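agent: user wants the full assembly modeled, not chains individually. Plan: 1) parse entity lines 2) check alphabet per entity 3) run joint structure prediction 4) return tokens. Steps 1-2 passed, two entities, 402 residues total. Proceeding.
--- entities ---
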Amino acid sequence: MDDGPEREILRATYRALCKHGYADLTLKEIAAESDRSKALIHYYYDGKHGLFDAFLELLYEEYTDRIDAATGDTAGERLRSLLAVLLTDEGASSGREFRTALLEVKAQAPYNDTIREHLVEFDAALFERLETVVADGVESDEFDPSVDPARVAECLTATVQGAHARRVAIDDSTDELYETLVDHAERHLLADGTGSLEVGR
Amino acid sequence: MDDGPEREILRATYRALCKHGYADLTLKEIAAESDRSKALIHYYYDGKHGLFDAFLELLYEEYTDRIDAATGDTAGERLRSLLAVLLTDEGASSGREFRTALLEVKAQAPYNDTIREHLVEFDAALFERLETVVADGVESDEFDPSVDPARVAECLTATVQGAHARRVAIDDSTDELYETLVDHAERHLLADGTGSLEVGR
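--- prediction returned ---
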């Protein structure tokens, strides 16, 4: 893909964020990661605040592309695929430095309206995908009819975010949690309670 | 309780952390929240690093006291009581400022061995309580014998931490999640699947 200057500046923001963290991120450090001057970055974006707004917008697009790539013929397969994207090391889109920087950004949300608004969007996108796939499963009689899609989605949204926080804070792999959640869904979400979410089984 | 100077300095650290966040926390700001001088804080603690080490040790003691106060006659009651301490607004031990500062501290873990070691202790304390109460329930035939205590505990540990991160990042109450988890445990953890974890029912 041929990156224009704006996209190239956002890529440099990614690299600078991984290297310096959010608190120490300045336009100077972003310019150092880019072919563009600090003045040009100022020309395109209104300081660190405006740049970070655009950066979170790009991350959101990439995030929704990634979770929307989780497909499957049945609701069970789609749920499994979505959890794999979210939780397995294989599905991880980014390295440790970036995940760490993102947790730091999250902690800024109470002080920063722009960041908070973006995080609410990320959270809603995840919740909405999880709720849809569970509701699909209930509607198609694949899942237990007494399952409440919104409640399952709320719970899984928290679990996924907690798993990501633990992965940063205590360097814990989330692969085993993925297995546990799939196993749990197979036992308690599927209508017959004896099926499998595994693709191709 | 009659606080000695060390305990009083740690209380001042709490207030300064709520006010300034972790990144901007200095001994000067802690001294400003205390009756003690910056020099005296230096006398008792080896700079910000040593002070924060002692502070996290105190938080850990308070945290384990709080979760160990979750009691009940049955494993189901103890689990419900533990989830109430962890997730309900009523059970919350601290305000928004402090929870925000703690999330910021978590994001420092990859760069700071002392913080990471403390966070691993907090995580292990929570996991261990959850695993014990679920194992108790399985042993006493109160819970489904096919339940794996370690896997349930792993999952709930992530869910609780994710709920705390969401409470900070998107200002979401965790009261409803508490209800969902109790309902879920009643349906899928109890041996007969029709019971209640509610105390006194």
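agent: reporting back. The mean pLDDT of chain B is 88. The interface with chain A takes residues 21, 23, 96, 100, 103-104, 106-111, 116, 119-120, 123, 151, 154-155, 157-166, 168-172, 174, 176-177, 180-181, 183-184, 187-188 of chain B (CB under 8 Å).
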